[in-house]
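Researcher: We plan to redesign the surface later, but first we want a full-length starting point. Tokens attached.
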């Protein structure tokens, strides 16, 4: 590896030091329904995001709540000596991408058949701290 490439890689690694992320793959919810809940917590600090997800009636909020708790614990394992309250963590980025589809057939009148697409998605949640050490 050349010196310029190594320096660039070290800068990227240093920038990602205060980030923590969690991924949820192949979640059996349609991406459109998941994005409705994800848009509510984007940019929020973790305490308000957890309360939004806890009291939301949508099923997707339960899965995102577990994912947010996982991202928080990932941040804690990276920064063992730091306190969560002093770090002021917030949801920096949340992406919902579509995953594979299960294609099924539903019978229809007059010998026809309609296709049913059971959609799933991938969710990536990235936390960052507002305080810069």
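Model: Full-length starting sequence:
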């Amino acid at each position: 590896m050349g010196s310029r490439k190594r320096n660039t890689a070290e800068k990227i690694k240093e920038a990602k030091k205060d980030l923590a992320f969690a991924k949820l793959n192949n979640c059996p919810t349609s991406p459109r329904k998941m994005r409705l809940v994800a848009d509510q917590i984007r940019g929020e600090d973790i305490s308000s995001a957890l309360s939004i997800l806890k009291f939301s009636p949508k099923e997707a909020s339960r899965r995102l709540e577990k994912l947010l708790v996982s991202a928080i614990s990932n941040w804690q394992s990276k920064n063992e000596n730091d306190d969560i309250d002093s770090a002021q963590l917030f949801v920096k980025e949340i992406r919902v991408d579509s995953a594979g589809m299960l294609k099924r057939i539903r019978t229809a009148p007059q010998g026809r058949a309609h296709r049913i697409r059971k959609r799933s998605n991938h969710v990536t949640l990235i936390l960052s701290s507002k305080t810069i050490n």
